[in-house]
Amino acid sequence: MRRLLLSCLVAAPLLMSAPADAGDITDVIQRQIEAFQAEDLDAAFAVASPGIKQMFRTPERFAEMVRSGYPMVWRPGDVRYLDRRAHPGGGQVQRVMIRDRDGTLHFLDYLMLPGEGGWNIAGVQILRGADAGA
């Protein structure tokens, strides 16, 4: 009994600090994509990391960057969530495959960082060539 209690006391902090499951991460990304589609700029900006918020300052400036630099995210056709891995600098990287409305496939890596209210999107990298392999 004493060993079980000791094991629980040792494991509890580890379980509390464990990253959320992949569903939590994909839910955040999906909420942002849906917010862009609905042109709910505040909701899309809300899941950005503090660093992204500081860089763009307003939902409108952030949306303009996404609209011009990531049109496949702004108006996707089909979205599929692929593998997820730990990022060496902390957080998680979620690979996403997006088919745009013209039918072109795009592979993106979303850097996800834990925050006070859950996961935040800290960056998105469009993968090219060999990096895009699923």
UniProtKB/TrEMBL annotation:
Keywords linked to the UniProt accession: Signal
Organism of this sequence: Rhodobaculum claviforme
Signal peptide, first to last residue: 1-22
Lineage: Bacteria, Pseudomonadati, Pseudomonadota, Alphaproteobacteria, Rhodobacterales
InterPro entries per UniProt: DUF4864 (IPR032347), NTF2-like_dom_sf (IPR032710)
Protein name: DUF4864 domain-containing protein
Coiled coil: none
